[in-house]
Protein: Sigma-70 family RNA polymerase sigma factor
Amino acid sequence: MTSLNQNWKNFLEKGDEFSFSIIYNKYVEELYAYGISLGFQKENCKDAIQDVFIKIFLDRNNISKIENKSGYIFRSYKNRLIDLEKKNNNKDNIDSVEDKFTIEVTILDNLIETEIANIVKEKIKKLLESITPNQREVVYLKYVVGLQHSEIAEILGIHEESARKLLYRAMEKLRNKISNDELYLIAIYFMLLRFII
Structure:
């Protein structure tokens, strides 16, 4: 099986369309879920994904110089979503995306249709509402998407150390509000969310 790095190499060096399609398929669902979590409309999320990958395809010579390709893709996607929102609203100023970031807790409804699932869902929702939108976003990028601190830093436009601190503070805040059993429950939730998205 060819690794993602090998597919990047084949695409960037040879313009291999098959490798490009594998790269696209690797990111498309994660980007879409990220855009929805940022509060953007479904159509804008789909359009932004297409725009980002068209740009990558046409500009592959410049992309080869970028070390952190995942971070670049997510940041380009977020910026494109903001541009589309501005264009659609005909506004020069747009509310900060950080003020909108949410994580919908719906996965457990599909897995377990019981009262316990509803209790868990509400508990997680309240816990996530207790942290800032920036903290929710960094938790999502780390534990749902599975990005590294350097990639998260690039997406958020901050230093890697700041991304670490933001995640640490979010997790510390969550730990202070819950028991070890509840923390375990949240970890399972994010693990399941990552596999289903």
